[in-house]
Design brief:
This protein is mainly alpha-helical and about 325 residues long. About 80% of the residues lie in helices and about 0% in strands. The chain is elongated.
């Protein structure tokens, strides 16, 4: 068997094995494990059937109301179509764009990426891949990043805003006026969200509807906690200042834990960045020092296959490292 054929067979076999093992690993990591953890957590808080207490007593009325609110939030998580999902992403990113406008912009980005690729003089077939990446991946990645940054800005000062509401309630101000103070004192998106809440109440909208719309714009765990607290407090009554004060303490503890985890994972992140960038750095240096050494990878079919396999393995490795060093709290 010729050596080139042997290389191609080994390469194809490696690609098939990589796809099978990588698909199985990604399926277990991203699909099966989150469902198991979610079901275990729901069983612990009593949303679904789980191990009963030893004394056989039922939960209190307040805990059952919290469970009902959690069930309602879970029921609202319906599968969305492409347009609905795109509209939700634009809303979370804070962009005043319609899905049709965003699709047109994405097409323009894809065409621009394909033209840039063709200007390099490379294989014209690669322009199709450049168009797909520019149209589907780059714009969605940008709006996802904008949404995450907006949620991070909202969460950063959310506990301070709740403390301001608590002080206002204790001083005798109405809750709506406390929301108005937060809207004036804090920058967007936090101040903007409370401003929309105040304007909605002035227009006669219910608090439940306002909270639902707010969660659509900022689907953070902290905002969901706040919505559940307000809805439960409106139904059961009690001291709202003390309840929000406890919520503020919980949010601050979550932030402290998140910062601690980020600090402990900083070394692993630096190592992952070095490992992920090392192949590109070595390729760039060799391209400058001795271009003919790497020329066969671009001119020979076997070299192209090896580049594709290497890119797939590198992408899989970066994905695994990213999953290992990113913790959700």
């Amino acid at each position: 068997m010729p050596i080139e054929t042997l290389v191609i067979v080994i390469t194809v076999g490696s690609v098939v094995a990589m796809l099978v093992l990588g698909g199985a690993g990604i399926g277990v990591t991203y699909v099966l494990r989150p469902k198991i953890l979610l079901r275990r957590r729901m069983a612990q808080i009593g949303v679904i059937d789980g191990p009963k207490a030893a004394d056989g007593r039922s939960d209190g009325r307040r805990q059952r109301r919290i469970q009902d609110q959690i069930r309602q939030l879970e029921r609202r998580k319906k599968k969305k179509g492409f347009i609905d999902s795109l509209r939700a992403d634009l809303l979370q990113a804070g962009l005043d764009l319609s899905p049709n406008t965003f699709i047109v912009i994405s097409l323009g980005v894809g065409v621009f990426g394909a033209l840039i690729y063709l200007l390099t003089g490379a294989n014209p077939l690669g322009a199709v891949a450049a168009f797909i990446v520019g149209m589907l991946l780059v714009p969605r990645f940008i709006i996802k990043s904008m949404a995450k940054r907006r949620q991070k800005q909202f969460t950063a000062n959310f506990a301070d805003a709740i403390d301001l509401i608590v002080r206002g309630i204790k001083s005798g101000l109405p809750v709506n006026e406390c929301f108005n103070v937060v809207a004036r004192e804090f920058n967007p998106p936090l101040g903007e969200e409370f401003r929309l809440m105040v304007e909605g109440q002035n227009l006669g909208m219910t608090l439940d509807d306002l909270m639902d719309k707010g969660i659509e714009r900022l689907p953070t765990a902290e905002y969901k906690f706040f919505a559940i607290v307000l809805q439960i407090q409106r139904q059961t009554g009690g001291n709202l200042a003390d309840t929000l004060g406890n919520l503020s303490s919980v949010l601050r503890q979550r932030k402290q834990l998140r910062d601690k985890v980020q600090a402990m994972a900083s070394e692993a992140k630096a190592s992952a960045m070095i490992i992920g960038s090392l192949p590109w750095f070595v390729t760039g240096v060799l391209s400058v020092v001795n271009p003919e050494y790497l020329l066969l990878l671009w001119t020979e079919p076997a070299g192209n296959v090896m580049l594709g396999v290497g890119a797939c393995w590198l992408t899989l490795g970066i994905t695994v490292m990213r999953k290992m060093i990113n913790f959700k709290i």
